[in-house]
Design brief:
Length: 188
Amino acid sequence: MAKELVRELINAGVHFGHGVSRWNPKMAPFIFARRGNIHIIDVKKTLAGILVAKKLLSEVVSSGKDVVFVGTKRQAQQAVKKVAERCGMHYVSDRWLGGMLTNFRTVRSRLQRLEQLEAMQEDGSLEKESKKQASKIKREMKKIRGNLEGVRKMTSLPGAIVVVDARKEYLALHEAKKLGITTVGIID
């Protein structure tokens, strides 16, 4: 199984790192070689990290807690959404709102407001409003859906957070650290 996973990682191009001029010296233990002006990342160490993360996430899920996938980079948005929906977990793919974890009560109240607005739309009371008011309500619904659709069914704080780019998602990591939530990060 490990050989198949290594082959898949290499076929996906995971072993290609940044250009030699953009490297961080802390990455030295993970660099296998240098080919031209690009570092080649050690796939064995990547595989070891993936297996550790897999074990950690399986322990979190088996204890009954949820996992939140966070990836707001344009390249990762669709993949994060697809993977989270496939495994029945929560996700944030558009924008990480500051305080999404530390101020969770307010996030829940906004989701309750979204449910009220959707109920208004379903029972027809939205058509009874003026055009301006109906447009305002629809705009509010669209905004809440865009920001919080992935965490809509989350009723309590998650047990772990999986972050696609640790540098870009520093707010999510900071909040998780503050609350003592386990994090798994993918770093390029």
